[in-house]
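Proteins fold reproducibly. Take a tokenised chain:

. . .
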Amino acid sequence: VRLITSGKAVVIAHNHLGGKPGGITAFCEGQERMVINGNNVFPDGYSNLVMKNCTHCEVSGNQFQSYYSGIVYLEGASNHNNISANHLVSDLHPVSRLWNDNPANQLSSSFGIIRVDGDDNSLSGNSVKSFGPSSHAMVFLNGHSNRLQGCKLDGLGGLTRKVVVSKGVSGRENQVLDCAENGEIDFASGISIIHRPIPSATV
């Protein structure tokens, strides 16, 4: 899927989508009020979904599977979008049975399975599983005033750094609620964020 330049009210729903190695399965640029719902997106594209400069869009109820980081990437001025109730798996490669860095140079293990460069986005109720190493980042918030809430983040390969908030000025005023424990979020002191850790279990 390739939507370039601009568009409004596009719907991508109920498809089976798989990109070739080196490609992006769905690349959407300059879209407004787009809906991506109920798709099954499988390997072996380097990224499952890249939204560049997209606003007021909804991505919900999709299955995303990849062998790399950068499964869902909100690039550039991708603002005021809702990413909810998706299931993402950054899996071991079926041949090597190893987890690999994304072959695209800019997508290292610290890039994030979900990466948000835009502002004022809402990410809620997503299930994210990763077999990546401890240095890996599951969610990277690189913009400001984003809200990450009620997401289930499972590090199956020893990963403990579940959420990273940008250490630059761009990382201010993000909210991370009920997604990670205190030791599982990485942010610089002095950066203004709201963090409510996962509530402790009681017997």
In short: The CA atoms of residues 40 and 63 lie 5 Å apart. The mean pLDDT is 87.
